[in-house]
Each structure stands twice: as C-alpha cells, then as structure tokens.
Automatic annotation (TrEMBL):
Class of the enzyme per the UniProt entry, highest EC level: ligase
SUPFAM superfamilies attached to this UniProt entry: Adenine nucleotide alpha hydrolases-like, N-terminal nucleophile aminohydrolases (Ntn hydrolases)
Catalytic activity: L-aspartate + L-glutamine + ATP + H2O = L-asparagine + L-glutamate + AMP + diphosphate + H(+)
Residue ranges constituting the Glutamine amidotransferase type-2 domain according to the UniProt record: 2-219
GO term, biological process aspect, one: asparagine biosynthetic process
Protein name, UniProt field: asparagine synthase (glutamine-hydrolyzing)
CDD domains linked to this entry: Asn_synthase_B_C, AsnB
EC number assigned by the record: 6.3.5.4
GO annotations of cellular component type: cytosol
Species of the source: Marinobacter adhaerens
Pathway(s) the chain acts in: Amino-acid biosynthesis; L-asparagine biosynthesis; L-asparagine from L-aspartate (L-Gln route): step 1/1
A GO term for molecular function: ATP binding
Keywords attached to this entry: ATP-binding, Glutamine amidotransferase, Nucleotide-binding
C-alpha cells in the first residue's frame, strides 16, 4: 500500500519552505504505508500541497514516483491503491493518441482524466484506490475513493486549513490541527464498536464514503465549508433480472469473471502471493491464480497450536493439491500479548 496527505490553505500568502516542511512531516507520519520513497508537490500561488509515500508495486523506476503531474501539466495526483484494469484503459488511450513515459497505473489515471474528465474516468476505474487530484486549470481539488471503500480517505477543516490524507495521524501533523472530540461519534462507537463513515472521532473531520468524490473549488475556498460528496458508482445499478440464466451458465460466467479479475490483480513488478486459509474463498482465489501462473504461487497461512482454532492443516492440504510454494506461521499467546502495547498506534 501507499499513503498520501495534503492541505489547502484559505487566504494564501504561504511560505514555501515551511509548507514543504509540513508536507514532508505529514508524509513521514505514514511512512509505514510507503517505505520505498516519498515526495511532495506544492503550488504556493494557490496554497495547495500534496505529500506521498510510495510502496513500489508497478513501474519501480522514478517514472512511477508521486506526486505525479500529467503530460499536459494540468493535473497533479497523489494516489494510494491500484487500478486493476489499467492495461486495457492504457491501450484505449494509446489508440486515441496518448503517450506514456513509464508503465504505471498512476500515469494511465492522469491520461484518463485528461481524455475523459474526472467523473467519467472514475466510473471506468476497476480497483482499490483513494486519491487527491488537483486540476490546475480549473483550480479544483478532487478527493475520491474506490467503489467498495477498500482504501481510506479522511478530510476536513482545521482552523483555516483544509487537510486530507490516508490516515488521521498524517492530518495531525499540520500546525492548524485542533483535534476536538466529536461527541456525536461516541454513541456510534459504543453501539457499533466502530465509527461508521462519514463520521470520525474528531470534530470537523470526515471519512469519504465509498464510490464517492468531493470537488473543492479553491478559487472560492471558505473555511468550514465543504461540498457534498457525489456518487460516481452505485451497486444497485449493477444488477439486472434475466430468465435466461441456468445454474451451469451462471457458474461458468462467474468462473470467467473471477479468472479475468484475478489475472488483472496479479500484474506486478515485484513478487506477490496470497493468504490461504483452506476455506472456499481463499482456495478458489489461489486455484485461479495457480492456473494462470507460470511458477508455483507463494501462499501463506497463520496457524494456532489450539486445535479448535487452527486452519493451517486445511490450508496445507489445499496448497499441496495445487502445488503452491507454501509458508506457515504459527502464532502463540505470547505473540498476541506482544502486540497489545502497539494497538493504540495501529488504530490511530
């Protein structure tokens, strides 16, 4: 995974050196999300900046570094996640005259925004992602999140600054951070054992809903004012009734879909693997991975010495049947206890 953060200042008149320091500090707070590289970008005229931490998966060269500027210079993006259908989208864009310097999905995203517009491009991205995108021509900041909400994105006002990022700890590094507790979120936490989006534990800070984006007009930036999120995709629109399906036809169709989607998710410039529990879901995924792989897929399982909780034996049986390169890690009570002091940090 990667991570990003940033801010937009109302009123302008910023000091470039101090703002770049703030951006680097925000990025350093989430270095665990992207230990391979980091970068910052700042438009001091419009008082907006982006910080990015990179975990290199696609295009390991500097051409895949972020924040990344589009070919025309219009768009700048800090992006966390992966666009699984980027190769197909890239081929379509190439046919329409686009040019790419590298082979990252980030560069394809930027070309898609330039060719189709932000909302239309969002509707065509299949993947897990969150991003901050700045349109320098329209002076508009876009914050967007994937269809299922796999990747997080927090945003909101603190004083005269709009802050945003992958984790709350990044937002806390900005000197305008106030951190007032959102008392309305406490009953939600007690009731659900979590704080559901769009709420967070902090006043004025929100979690963007899945399949949504916000577009902030920086030319009319007013402290405390946020546009309503817009939906670019709806799950309920993806279903259609048909009398033509048989069980066999539906099963064949599902297998074809899973094979294509898993194949897209196996595209990587670094080694990849899969968690395997021995259950139906993970066994199906690994079987379809192994069918498309030229070498044994690397699989990993967690085991327990307590028989009632141990699934490692089932996973090992599936791994042996499929011929994967399998690794087991047995977790002890002491391993679990050792993690308890880290829980406040892990959960922000």
């Amino acid at each position: 995974m990667c991570g990003f953060a940033g801010f937009a200042e109302a009123g302008g008149n910023i000091d470039r050196e101090s703002c770049e320091t703030r951006l680097r500090k925000m990025g350093e707070a989430i270095v665990h999300r992207g230990p391979d590289a980091g970068g910052v970008w700042l438009n001091d005229a419009l008082s907006v900046g982006l910080s990015h931490r990179r975990l290199s998966i696609l295009d390991l060269s500097p051409l895949g570094a972020q924040p990344m500027v589009s070919a025309s210079g219009r768009f700048v993006i800090a992006f966390n996640g992966e666009i699984y259908n980027f190769q197909a989208l890239g081929e379509e864009l190439l046919a329409d005259g686009a040019h790419f310097r590298g082979h990252s999905d980030t560069e394809v995203m930027l070309a898609a925004f330039e060719a189709w517009g932000v909302e239309a491009a969002l509707g065509r991205f299949a993947g897990m992602f969150a991003f901050a995108l700045f349109d320098q021509q329209e002076q508009r900041l876009y914050l967007a999140r994937d269809r299922m909400g796999e990747k997080p994105l927090y945003y909101g006002w603190q004083g005269g600054t709009l802050v945003f990022g992958s984790e709350l700890r990044a937002l806390q590094q900005h000197p305008q951070w106030q951190g007032g507790i959102n008392r309305g979120a406490l009953p939600l936490l007690v009731r659900h054992n979590l704080i559901p989006a769009p709420h967070t534990i902090y006043s004025g800070i929100f979690k963007l809903l899945p399949a949504s984006f916000v577009a902030v007009d920086l030319a009319r930036l007013e402290p405390g004012q946020l546009p309503e999120p817009s939906r670019y995709w709806r799950l309920e629109d993806q279903f259609a009734e048909s009398d033509d399906w048989t069980v066999e036809a539906a099963a064949d169709h599902l297998e074809a879909l899973l094979t294509r989607v898993i194949g897209e998710q196996m595209v990587s410039d670094v080694p990849l693997g899969a968690f395997l529990s021995g259950g139906v879901d993970s066994s199906t995924v690994v079987a379809l991975m192994q069918r498309q792989a030229s070498t044994p897929v690397k699989t990993f399982s967690i085991g327990f010495n307590e028989e009632g909780f141990n699934e490692a034996e089932h996973a090992a049986a599936v791994a042996g049947h499929l011929g994967t390169d399998h690794t087991e890690l047995y977790v002890t009570e002491q391993n679990a206890r050792d993690q308890v002091p880290r829980l406040p940090q892990i959960y922000d």
